[in-house]
Amino acid sequence: MTLTKLLKGLTPIGLIAALPSSAFAAANLQSDDFVGISFWLISMALMAATVFFLWETQSVDGKWKTSLVVSALVTFIAAVHYFYMRDVWITTGETPTVYRYIDWLLTVPLLMIEFFLILRAIGNASGGIFWRLLIGTLVMLIPGYLAEAGYINTTLGFVIGMLGWFYILYEIFAGEAGQMAAKEASQAVQSSYNSMRWIVTIGWAIYPLGYALGYFVYIDADGNTTQAASEALNIVYNLADVVNKIAFGLLIWYAATSESKN
Ligand SMILES: *C/C=C(C)/C=C/C=C(C)/C=C/C1=C(C)CCCC1(C)C
Q1: Does the CB atom of residue 199 touch ligand 1 within 6 A?
Q2: How many angstroms does the Cα of residue 66 sit away from the middle of ligand 1?
Q3: Mean per-residue pLDDT, 179-206
């Protein structure tokens, strides 16, 4: 039993520890490269969070185990992408757009599953809710990628992406999902639904802020982005990930442990 538990805890650590070596050769992190340092710190925090969430599945009741595993998958996938993004930034000084969006494309739908699991704990959540949230996610992320990667105009990508985000907000506040949550549910489930709303409203707002700094604020006289722009964009996206992946996972963990003990 103890051995199984130990293995369960050690497997993710071993897996994650082996990953940085598969990213390209470790570059030299400069002491004044604060964006690079933030990539480094957050990749470690994401690994630690993964191990923590997996470990804690042992001490929560059945329905919460899945939620914690999903939180762990989010931080795990992000940790791997952070290793690569960190190397891109440190070796080239460029914004790791492709890795960033592949990460989001995987982790944001997982967060949607997380929301759906919370809703299901409240009552009979229809599959339609999940699909609508997923469509909102794609409308938010795909134009963002196309714009950041230079395929479409950055204002156009921003506007369409914002519409996708507003649609998600509509769904969780006023749509079927919002109405379901207003119905009777335990204290812990209600509080995790509320945290979810806060995260999607305030936590997610940090991303378009980073985008705006990167493409609309720190531009030079010719309208081109500057070094300050890519630094602002990356540091703000990184902080947003701490809030929306690690802190959000901790909120779920808090709800799960408080409901499991009484
Ligand atoms: C773990 C990663 C998460 C939760 C990523 C979330 C990303 C967003 C909420 C991105 C939003 C954007 C807009 C609302 C406008 C267009 C630009 C984006 C893609 C940065």
Answers
A1: no
A2: 24
A3: 82
